[in-house]
Design a protein that fits this description.
Structural class: alpha+beta
Number of domains: 1
Shape: elongated
CATH architecture: 2-Layer Sandwich
Helix content: 25-40%
Number of helices: 3
CATH topology: Double Stranded RNA Binding Domain
CATH class: Alpha Beta
Strand order of the largest sheet: 3-4-5
Largest sheet: 3 strands, antiparallel
Radius of gyration: 27 Å
Distance between the termini: 88 Å
Oligomer: single chain
Number of strands: 5
Strand content: 15-25%
Length: 140
């Protein structure tokens, strides 16, 4: 069993990513109608033993429409003319998604502007309004 590093300290087993192939649309020359070059990657994120619960929840949320109701992530790759390149592309996209899910977002502490900052802002607005008033044409 080979392990693939998706993010620092986050690994998935290679067997968890299942591939199937189909005929791709687009360029392909003489092989376009006879060789299955497009790759479907299926990764069962909900039942994965490699990922912890926090990463699983975030991964399924980030996957959006690529995630099924059963918690499986489906990636379709057909950008390249060869099956191997499409396979690598799909796996790279999955690993990027897992890496993004493994990244813990920075906790934001809500802050309020101080009373002095509010007063400075109001004074600046008043001063700016006075400058604009001086630029107006004189009123009769």
């Amino acid at each position: 069993m080979a392990r693939i590093e998706a993010a620092p300290g986050v690994f998935i087993e290679e067997e968890e990513a299942r591939f199937s192939y189909a005929r791709a649309s687009g360029p392909g020359g003489q092989n376009v109608n006879k060789v299955e070059t497009a790759a479907w990657l299926r990764f069962d994120a909900a039942n994965s033993t490699s990922l912890d619960e926090r990463v699983k929840r975030r991964l399924l949320a980030l996957a959006g429409t690529r995630a099924t109701k059963e918690g499986e992530i489906v990636i379709f790759a057909q950008n390249f003319r060869t099956q191997e390149m499409n396979r690598k592309d799909a796996l790279a996209r999955l690993l990027a998604l897992i890496g993004e899910a493994a990244h813990r977002p920075k906790f934001r502490v809500k802050t309020r502007p101080s009373l002095a900052a509010k007063k400075r802002r109001a004074d600046e607005k008043t001063a700016r309004g006075a400058v604009k008033k001086l630029r107006r044409a004189p009123q009769d």
